[in-house]
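Reviewers of the previous submission asked for a worked example of the structure-prediction workflow described in the proposal, so we include one complete record here. The input consisted solely of the amino acid sequence. No template or homolog information was supplied to the procedure at any stage.
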Amino acid sequence: MSEENTSLWQKIYSPMVLSLAVRNLKLNKFRTILSMIGIIIGVFAICGMGMISAGFTEEMNSMISDTADTLTITPVGEKVIDGTTTTGFSTKDLRDIESAVKSVTKDYEFIPLYSSSKYIYIGKETTMATISGMDSSDITKLATLIQGTLPRGSTNVIVGETFADDNDLRIGSRMIMLDTTGQEVTCRVVGIMEDSGAMTFGFSTNNAVVGSIEWYTGLVGDNHGLYDKVIVKAYDPTELNAIDAAIEKKMNGKEDKDSDDTVYILNSYEIMAVFDDIMSMSSIFTTIISGISLLVAAVAIVNVMLMSVKERTREVGILRSIGTYRSQILLMFLYEAGLIGLIGAIIGTLLALIAAPLMLMAMIGSIDAMFSVSVLSYVPIGILIGLIVCLISGLYPAWKAANLNPVEAMATD
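From that input alone, the workflow returned the following structure tokens.
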């Protein structure tokens, strides 16, 4: 059969040429293994770093995405009330903030609250916790109750799940705090809140003690009726940036943040976008660093293949003289490069699949993210990269071998 009459499949796949390529690789095992090690390292670096980065990003996003729908607004401007300088949101401030929110959307939750930190005495132990006071109807907008009931009155509180576990608290447990006059105030735990997670924007329940406004002001004082913060939850998180700008303009007189602001706004959606950008940049950086090792491996393969062509010049001349086509010579060297790349890439990817979960477990204590699409996609990507890099590296040596003059090649020692 002439070369012109062969199909495309027959041109790119030849069992005979493949067997020659395998034989050549086996004849130079040590050189083949050295070439393969470079690809293994390169693919392992790209896949491993990519999987770790993607897994870490996936885990962080899952941790913070549930709370990426809030604005936390805190006062930074001072007020002088009855000769006392203080900070906080007055009733008028709350109206102004809520009017700014309403100018953007009607679908939101608006939760003003009191908040501070306080020492708590539990039996013989002393610990620190974030205490908050708010309307009972607002608590369910920020937290999920997993045991007990909502706090009412001046002595009942609910606590975060982690705080309860750390301090061996149950429903009915009692805690003692000191009020502003130094008198002991006993509180009874009536409910336990579900943990909001380690990465929480806005209101974290993990180490929180929450009670009614009556309980809080009786313990800490009412700060002249000024609230300590406001949390705005938007049903559509994509509206947070517009709400942020509206509040900035209403309360600070401009849309951009400035050192003269009277309020500070923590925008969880904006933070999450910045986090995604940072992780994307980090992923690109690690890919570039890993790619350098693959580039070094590619250069090594070019060198090895050129040496192979030089050593087998006479063999190529003989093959050409007995009727072997140029395309078959080209194919034989490409097969050799491709086999090095394919086997090396598979080994490198398998090593990455072993190392990445270990690193994720050490970094975030979980390997759940390993099963995400973004992480597993590095398996075919790594194999393809290794294979393509080797085929490209072998292209010039293969072309050079295919175009040797048969007579001159046979005359070579």
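The two ends are 32 Å apart (CA to CA). We consider this example representative of the routine output the project will generate in years two and three.
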